[in-house]
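Quick bug: Delta-aminolevulinic acid dehydratase output formatted oddly.
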Amino acid sequence: MYPSHRPRRLRRNAAVRRLVGETTVEPRQLVLPMFVKEGAAEPTPIPSMPGVVQHSRNSLRKAAVDAVDAGVGGLMLFGVPERRDATGSGATDTDGILNVALRDVAAEVGDATVLMADTCLDEFTDHGHCGVLDEHGTVDNDRTLRLYGQMALAQATSGAHMVAPSGMMDGQVGVIRDSLDAAGFTDTSILAYSAKYASAFYGPFRDAVDSQLIGDRKTYQQDPSNGREALRETDLDLAEGADMVMVKPALSYLDVIREASEVADVPVAAYQVSGEYSMIEAAVGNGWLDRQRTVLESLTSIRRAGADIVLTYWAAEAARWLRQEQGTAERGT
Ligand code: PBG
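Here's what came back:
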């Protein structure tokens, strides 16, 4: 008795596996999130994200060039200001750290990559929320929208090709689109964090941006138990003019990525967030996981779920590995 079907035939060696592999990860599909700290003379390591730093303006420029040389598709900048206030005024200030850094990187790499900026107030507010608070301490949606419009404009003026509203305020994409268009930035695109969950996996990000959040984000970010709501958010963002949509986090939300990729008629991105990075790095640090294999498997899974683009802190490194693998496969070694 022999089995009549032998799926193992298509796995028997590297050449056949290469021929039939369905999902690819290419450097151009990876976007590197980067942090830049105001006033820093040297890059500062982020303890909960081994291998990731808060850049100085100088080290950011160098790392941006490195990442572009490695072949990544884009850079996503986050600013860490020296001073914070209730309205996050550093975000709309054209001399605020994020806008200064955008100009630095734009001058360095120009149009060789897609330069993106996080459009959200949480890095700039002293209470750590993504918007301004009303008298009850709740995030005031509509007052926040006005600031997002100004913030996006400051970023576009500073050289961002793409702005990425991540605050989950209702109407944020529409307001930003209007604000950009009214100022003539009709070619600046919007990457909408459409389905962004109130996730524990953002934990290490607080370290990365020195943020002390008072309370939680559950009144604006989505409940992890909800899938359908992600589709509603995606639809709304598309109706408001989003050029791309994003699901965040990635690995615990592969079903959401799949569903969003089935309904969206624009590219879908997924953000492999700080906690996803730190989990793997911690296990690798203990000698429990193989770093390169685990990282590439996680990226492949996110792509397989339907993401066209992946934001990942491993973007530059993974891009180098992928280029090496490609070379090796082509030589058949
Ligand atoms: C908000 C923002 C956050 C992240 C990206 N943009 C923090 C949050 O929503 O709490 C998290 C990214 C990560 O964890 O890697 N500006």
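Actually, after a second look the formatting is fine. The chain has a mean pLDDT of 97. Closing.
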